[in-house]
Amino acid sequence: MAVIVVAMGKDIPLDKWSAITDYSAMTDHTGSVAEYSPPRATMLLDAEQARLLSDPSRADIIQLLADRPASIKQLAEAMGRPRGSVGHHIHALEQSGIIAVVATRQVRAITEKFYGRLARTYVFPPLDEAEHPPFLVEAMAEIREPREGEAGMFTIRHARIPDTRAEAFADELVQLAEEFAARPRGGSTTYGFLIGLYPTDRPSLKEDE
């Protein structure tokens, strides 16, 4: 699953991902793509890139490409959308520098392109006070009750801690999200993983004197 976070005034340090220098590697006869690592750990989006990813279809494409690079045909089948519509979104994402062609395959006289993410984590620019983080809107739209055998939970906590400790804890949370996103694929359910750390104006008890 893709990891998308909101910038909180500074870049978020993550483990470096090795760059693939040869993006012309051919795929095998099954259409699967050899293991591909995005050349960048994080990419700080500008306002236009963030606007593009606010579109649900483009957000779905980015989520799917977190598994592996895919062709327009494969993405259209997964999304249940016409190829022309998916191709339009792919073109917009490619032109904006969010994704790129990372592999090709010759199918008869046609060269099939496989698109991949250019970063493991896309970092949204700081939001205006009136805006909601895009992933909160996305989560609210897709959350459903767990069916039999499925997992699911929510919790919220508040703690008065120093800013430096909060920053360190935020880094740990991002690493946890990266670990979740890197888990081997399997099963039949796509799970969402939503975490956050944010300042509030809630009251708190001071230390005993």
Q: Secondary-structure blueprint of this entry?
A:
Layout: E1 3-6, E2 40-44, H1 47-53, H2 56-64, H3 72-79, H4 83-95, E3 99-107, E4 110-117, E5 119-124, H5 134-142, H6 163-181
Parallel strand pairs: 1-5, 2-5
Antiparallel strand pairs: 3-4
Helix pairs in contact: 3-4
Describe this structure in words.
With 209 residues, the protein is an alpha/beta fold. The protein is built from 6 helices and 5 strands; from the N terminus they run ββααααβββαα. The strands form 2 sheets. Strands 1-5-2 form a 3-stranded parallel beta sheet, covered by helices on one side. The chain has a two-stranded antiparallel sheet with strand order 3-4. The termini are far apart.
Task: Describe what is shown at a glance.
The protein has 209 residues and is an alpha/beta fold. Helices cover 31% and strands 15% of the residues. A hairpin with a 2-residue loop joins strand 3 (99-107) and strand 4 (110-117).
Q: What would you call the structural class? A: alpha/beta
Number of strands: 5
Q: Portion of residues in helices?
A: 25-40%
The strand order across the widest sheet is: 1-5-2
Q: Counting H and I runs of at least 4 residues, what is the number of helices?
A: 6
What is the quaternary state of this protein? single chain
Mean pLDDT: 78
**Sheet bearing the most strands, described?**
3 strands, parallel
> In whole angstroms, how far apart are the ends?
47 Å
SSE series: EEHHHHEEEHH
Strand portion: 15-25%
Q: Can you tell me the overall shape?
A: elongated
Low-confidence stretches: 1-31
Q: Radius of gyration in whole Å, from Cα?
A: 19 Å
